[in-house]
Design a protein that fits this description.
The complex is a heterodimer of chains A (about 260) and B (about 500). By secondary structure, chain A is mainly α. Chain A has twelve helices and no strands. By secondary structure, chain B is α+β, with helices and mostly antiparallel strands. The chains are: A mainly alpha (about 260), B alpha+beta (about 500). Chains A and B meet through helix 7, helix 8 and helix 12 of A and strand 6 and helix 2 of B.
């Protein structure tokens, strides 16, 4: 009797099927909708309409700006926290790290609602939509920034800090010449984890921005109520924007390495 | 002259949390010398080095550099550079940048002349050309020309080692600190690097402070060796001094091979060990107990008639340049290193020249602990509880049915809580690997063979961390976990204070 053998190829089949049905086919459907009109004829109308409509263009720029501010805020808050936790000799530091990460385990909508109630209580709801949206996003995405940063910082060998001090580096130069470049991979994955979701997460902007803030995710949702073709086109454009920015950050990262190696 | 002492440690003590790692260490380093801190792992040699570098600060005491107190100065302000144990090269920088790291932060005072011909000074960073020239020179010094653009990950261990050395010496430090720099290299590479480091020391003329646990490395390279154990300096001297005149049995055992015996002084410069009397050169009081150290290569083999002692060869091992011959002399074992071969079973005589017999005061004569009498007339000390005879505290006393001590005059005394001094002789302790048997448990931290028995030190693993020193015929391994047995009648108690708790 022939023995049943699982090669790597056969074991990969379920994943291939999964990818086909849940990634490739939906993508093709989106591309199909984006380049067809209401009668399902090929058309580039949606594409042209998007770029001729200032509202749509400004929304995408607006989303980019909000995502950018959120990311910068997260980075500025998370880096010191991650650095202090990674370098402290405290035995209970995993508990403190846990405290920062625990909110991730509470239902997202619930968390946003809690912030909403808080803002309502101090009277900011409806008064500072822009600020509220950013606040909500930073609060929601902070753990995604802290974790990768902590993970890279904690792996930096203490002897490297000692070597820097030994060679004459003070706290500042050690940070700029050793800590920062060595934590670049963590910074990059933190940015990717925060920047991309904050462009599309319209739940926060809806609930905290008093529905006055429209980001690209909200836009897509609205269109899928009435015009699937336009919605698909916006989704596709967003995909390209996201893809490009990932390429840019990835490119930035490898460029960083090249720079280090060339200087 | 004080100014020639580039580094001086004055009564330096270091605690990590509550652990004493350096215990009141004082010594100095002369300018330009190659000094080695030698000792087994955990002896405090690396901590001492790290305090000189500034990574750890002394808990007590002072570190002086050229006579100035630098105890609390941060590492970046000290004119010393370190070669780290695992190199600690920056993985994100190439070889050039690794070496230039210190130079880029260095500031120098340059003197210029303005149009009027007046001199003025400016504090500047090194120029690009200066940095490049210095890096090139440093790379040439470690034989790595042309490696500037390589990344750290592409280098072998030996090459990384060289980069680490170049990175340190390029800053022209007054002192170069090397923390077991050759530990990760293979034997052949290590030998080569030893010679190269020694050469480099001669060429650069700066002070090298070297840390190693390898006694051979220390003997080969150093001008001065500081032997450390348990956070205490055991001996400081030249390699020849340390080898030929070890200060105590620890040094004798740690450096080179040794025959160590218990001896007694029987007359003016006459010592008795191995059952015979020998002439010696060290002067001790008559009847004093001493440790006798004889190097295996210093024992001269001769015919049984000529020898001071004679014995039967029980093993011969060829070691390349010499034979290691073990001879049974009565109940003692004597190890000889000689280029001459002997047959197993042969009876030979042995002579030891008087100047090769090294006598030293024994460090341990008995074990003394602080103890407390507990409820059941047992005594608690060294993290354990031992049965003892408490009636020895009061002559003529006995224990009544209620476990009270009744003195000769009929007084009833409750001894619970009484503080006592406990003394246990060197030959009254035994150990067992059954942890339930003894009064306390611990790990063997030292084993020294003394010809016919082993001298062991067991450190208890409770918070007292007391050491039991004793003799045994059995062979144990270092770090074995054992329990310590002391027979009831061998525990000698004396009262600490006279205020007894009376009923």
């Amino acid at each position: 009797m022939k023995r049943l053998r699982f090669s790597r190829k056969t074991l990969g089949i379920p994943y291939a099927v999964f990818l086909l049905f849940f990634v490739v086919i939906p993508m093709l459907v989106i591309v199909f909708y984006a380049f067809t009109d209401q009668e399902n004829h090929f058309s580039v109308m949606n594409f042209a309409k998007f770029f001729s409509d200032p509202t749509k263009l400004s929304t995408i720029v607006y989303s980019l700006v909000i995502a950018l501010i959120t990311t910068v805020c997260c980075l500025v808050i998370a880096y010191p926290v991650a650095l202090i936790l990674a370098r402290s000799k405290m035995k209970k530091k995993s508990v403190i790290l846990m405290l920062f990460v625990t909110p991730m385990w509470i239902n997202f909508v619930l968390r946003v609602n809690a912030i909403r109630e808080l803002l309502n209580w101090i009277g900011l709801l409806g008064e500072a939509n822009y600020f509220n949206t950013i606040l909500g996003m930073v609060y929601d995405f902070l753990p995604f920034m802290i974790l990768p940063l902590y993970n890279t910082l904690v792996k930096i060998d203490n002897s490297l800090y000692e070597a820097s001090a030994d060679l004459g580096g003070n706290a500042f130069t050690t940070f700029t010449r050793v800590t920062l470049p060595l934590s670049m991979p963590g910074i990059m994955s933190g940015i990717t984890m925060v920047f991309l979701p904050s462009m599309t997460n319209y739940v926060v902007s809806d609930m905290l921005g008093n529905s006055k803030i429209t980001i690209i995710g909200k836009f897509i949702e609205t269109y899928f109520g009435s015009d699937w073709h336009m919605g698909s086109m916006i989704a596709l454009i967003l995909l390209i924007v996201v893809f490009t920015s990932t390429m840019l950050t990835g490119g930035f990262q490898s460029e960083e390495n090249v720079r280090g190696a060339n200087l | 002259m004080a100014s020639q002492h580039i580094i001086e440690l004055q009564n330096v003590t270091k605690y990590f949390d509550d652990n004493l790692v350096i215990d009141n260490v004082s010594f100095y380093v002369k300018k330009g010398e190659f000094i080695t801190f030698l000792g087994p792992s955990g002896c405090g040699k690396t901590t001492t080095l790290r305090m000189i570098a500034g990574f750890d600060l002394p808990s007590e005491g002072k570190i002086l550099l050229n006579g100035k107190d630098i105890s609390l100065l941060p590492p970046n302000k000290r004119p010393v550079n370190t070669v780290f144990q695992r190199y600690a090269l920056f993985p994100h920088l190439n070889i050039f940048e690794n070496i230039a790291f210190g130079l880029r932060m260095k500031k120098v005072v340059n003197t210029y002349r303005n149009e009027k011909g007046e001199e003025y000074q400016k504090v500047e960073k090194l120029s690009k050309a200066e940095i490049a020239a210095k890096v090139k020179k440093a790379l040439a010094l470690v034989d790595l020309e042309g490696f500037e653009k390589r990344s750290v990950a592409t280098l072998s261990g030996g090459q990384q080692q060289r980069v680490a050395i170049a990175r340190a010496i390029v800053n022209e430090p007054e002192i170069l600190l090397l923390d077991e720099p050759l530990g990760a290299l293979d034997l052949k590479m290590r030998k080569e690097m030893q010679i190269e480091l020694k050469e480099m020391h001669k060429r650069l003329g700066i002070t090298f402070i070297y840390v190693t646990h390898d006694q051979e490395e220390a003997l080969t390279m150093s001008d001065t060796i500081v032997v450390m154990a348990d956070g205490v300096v055991q001996q400081i001297g030249t390699p020849t001094d340390i080898y030929n005149e070890p200060a105590n049995t620890f040094v004798a055992d740690f450096i080179g091979e040794s025959n160590i015996f218990n001896g007694t002084i029987v007359g003016d410069r006459r010592v008795k060990f191995c059952g015979k009397t020998f002439d010696c050169v060290d002067d001790f009081e008559r009847n004093e107990k001493v440790d006798v150290v004889v190097r295996p290569e210093d024992i001269v083999m001769c015919t049984p008639e000529e020898g001071t002692i004679k014995g039967k060869v029980i093993s011969v091992v060829f070691k390349g340049i010499h034979y290691e011959i073990t001879v049974q002399v009565g109940k003692y074992e004597v190890v000889i290193q000689s280029t001459e071969c002997r047959k197993v079973g042969e009876v030979i005589g042995m002579k030891i020249p008087a100047q090769e017999i090294h006598l030293m005061k024994p460090k341990y004569t008995s074990n003394v602990f602080d103890g407390v009498i507990t409820k059941r007339n047992t005594v608690e000390f060294a993290d354990g509880e031992f049965e003892c005879d408490v009636t020895q505290l009061y002559p003529g006393s006995h224990i009544d049915e209620e476990d009270y001590l009744v003195t000769a005059t009929g007084e009833q005394i409750d001894l619970t809580g009484t503080e006592v001094t406990v003394e246990v002789g060197l030959y009254d302790v035994s150990i067992s690997d059954d942890e339930e048997v003894g009064g306390t448990t611990g790990n063997i931290i030292s084993i020294i063979y003394k010809g016919d028995h082993y001298r062991l030190i067991v450190r208890t693993d409770g918070e007292d961390e007391e050491d039991f020193v004793f003799a045994t015929d059995d062979l144990w391994n270092e770090n074995d976990r054992v329990s310590v047995v002391v027979p009831k009648d061998k525990i000698r108690l004396t009262l600490k204070n006279t205020e007894d708790k009376k009923r």
